[in-house]
Amino acid sequence: MSLLYHFWSLYLTCIAFPCCYLYTMETIIKKPNMVSAILHEKCPHCGQGHVFQKQSNPFKMPVMNERCSECNYKFDREPGYFLGAMYISYGIAVFLGILTYLVLHFVFPATPLIYIPVSIVLVILIAARKNYKLSRIIYIHMFPW
Fold first, then answer.
1. Closest Cα to residue 140, out of 76, 53, 94?
2. For the chain, does the N or the C end have fewer beta carbons within 10 angstroms?
3. Mind listing the pLDDT tens digit for each residue in 103-139?
4. Buried (b) or exposed (e) across 51-67, using 16+ Cβ within 10 A?
5. How far apart are CA 98 and CA 101, in angstroms?
6. pTM of the entire predicted model
7. pLDDT of residue 92
8. Is 80 in contact with 88 (CB distance < 8 Å)?
9. Does the structure show a pLDDT above 70 at 95?
10. Cα–Cα distance between 75 and 72 in angstroms, integer?
């Protein structure tokens, strides 16, 4: 690691920025990888700020921040921007429905037929809030502008 640091510092001070000796490895902000940023609901630009406001009421719809608190990145660009996130949300809901069916079919084979669609709808409704947030964050990370 230290050898890589020295080569990087040498490159920055001598070749890339010969007039700027203060630009070293410590000043470079490490951005988390995309999967980690999506799962932790972080900004696609800096990976530090939260996309959604913290809420204590689990029955209210999540509210997006207008801008990132760290880098001032604007999340909502124009009216209708998140229309594409609807397709991601639909895909996640279908995945949850299929997964619920497979678990009920193979793990609990004696489940009465009426409980299967009720269970699928119940799982999709319970996961709806997280699905809403996750689909928007995936969409922001896919098209970060």
1. 76
2. N
3. 999 999 998 999 999 999 999 999 999 999 999 999 9
4. beeeeeeeeeeeebbee
5. 5
6. 0.71
7. 96
8. no
9. yes
10. 9
Bridge partner residues of 74 (DSSP): 67
Note the residue count of the chain.
145
34 dihedral zone (left: phi>0; alpha: psi -120 to 50; beta): alpha
Residue 23 near residue 13 (C-beta atoms within 8 A):
yes
**47 vs 53: CA distance, rounded Å:** 15
Query: CA 88, 37, 79, 128: dihedral to nearest 10 degrees?
Result: 50
Token match 């269970």: residue? 119
Distance CA 132, CA 135 (A): 5
- What per-residue confidence (pLDDT) applies to 26? 44
CA 132 from chain centre, in angstroms, equals 11
Q: Compute the mean pLDDT over every residue in the chain, rounded to the nearest whole number.
A: 81
What is the DSSP track for the chain? Answer: -HHHHHHHHHIIIIII-TT-TT--GGGSPPPPPHHHHHHTTB-TTTS-SBSB---S-TTSPP-B-SB-TTT--BS--STTGGGTHHHHHHHHHHHHHHHHHHHHHHH-TT--TTHHHHHHHHHHHHTHHHHHHHHHHHHHHHS--
